[in-house]
């Protein structure tokens, strides 16, 4: 299978430094239900969405203003047939300057179309990156509940 990951991207007018800072604080664009340190190399933290999804993530790479990589150590989806979905995946944020704009490329390496969660994860990541994180970067406020809006 050629497609072994999910990717989405945004382009903003803010600096790479501003984009890096926003990504490093997922409580402001992904979920307030995060426990632990998210902005330091080798830090481990936990995410939870009700009783439907929880995971343990480790920050495995941080290159200021250029790249952040998270590694999924543990994962649970309430309705997954395969409980190993996401385990071992890397979630990457690659930041690059293009003329007077900054591009962010988000990739979840290992999020494959055969996963039970793929469609809902694709929808969720697209919203969190293109709506909530982009809003945080451009306005200073994330849209944590973007999915509740019509």
Outline the fold blueprint:
Layout: E1 5-12, H1 16-23, E2 34-36, E3 44-49, E4 53-63, E5 67-77, E6 90-98, E7 101-109, H2 118-139
Antiparallel strand pairs: 1-7, 2-3, 3-4, 4-5, 5-6, 6-7
Structure description:
- The chain is an alpha+beta fold.
- It has one domain (5-148): 2-Layer Sandwich (Alpha-D-Glucose-1,6-Bisphosphate, Chain A, domain 4), CATH 3.30.530.20.
- It is built from two helices and seven strands, in the order βαββββββα.
- It has helices spanning 16-23, 118-139, and strands at 5-12, 34-36, 44-49, 53-63, 67-77, 90-98, 101-109.
- It has a seven-stranded antiparallel β-sheet.
- A hairpin with a 3-residue loop joins strand 4 (53-63) and strand 5 (67-77).
- The longest helix has 22 residues, at 118-139.
- The protein is globular.
- The N and C termini lie far apart (35 Å).
- 27% of the residues are buried.
Which keywords apply here?
alpha+beta; 7-stranded antiparallel β-sheet; 38% strand; 150 residues; Alpha-D-Glucose-1,6-Bisphosphate, Chain A, domain 4; 20% helix; 7 strands
Task: Provide the residue-averaged pLDDT.
Answer: 94
Please give the order of strands in the largest beta sheet. 1-7-6-5-4-3-2
Number of helices: 2
Please outline the major beta sheet.
Answer: 7 strands, antiparallel
**Oligomeric form:** single chain
Give the CATH class: Alpha Beta
Terminal residue distance:
35 Å
Helical content class: 10-25%
Strand residue percentage: 35-45%
Instruction: Give the domain tally.
Output: 1
Please state the structural category: alpha+beta
What is the CATH topology assignment? Answer: Alpha-D-Glucose-1,6-Bisphosphate, Chain A, domain 4
Care to count the β-strands?
7
Overall 3D geometry?
Answer: globular
């Amino acid at each position: 299978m050629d497609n072994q990951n999910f990717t989405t991207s945004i382009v903003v007018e803010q600096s790479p430094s501003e984009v890096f800072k926003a990504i490093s604080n997922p409580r402001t664009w992904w979920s307030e239900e995060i426990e632990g340190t998210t902005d330091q190399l080798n830090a481990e933290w936990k995410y939870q969405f009700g009783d439907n999804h929880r995971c343990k993530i480790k920050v495995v790479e941080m290159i200021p203003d250029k790249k952040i990589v998270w590694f999924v150590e543990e994962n649970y989806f309430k309705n997954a047939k395969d409980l190993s979905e996401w385990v071992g995946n890397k979630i990457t944020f690659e930041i690059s300057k293009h003329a007077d704009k900054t591009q962010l490329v988000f990739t979840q390496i290992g999020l494959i179309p055969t996963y039970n969660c793929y469609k809902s994860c694709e929808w969720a990541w697209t919203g969190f990156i293109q709506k909530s994180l982009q809003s945080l970067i451009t306005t200073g406020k994330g849209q944590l509940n973007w999915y509740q809006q019509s």
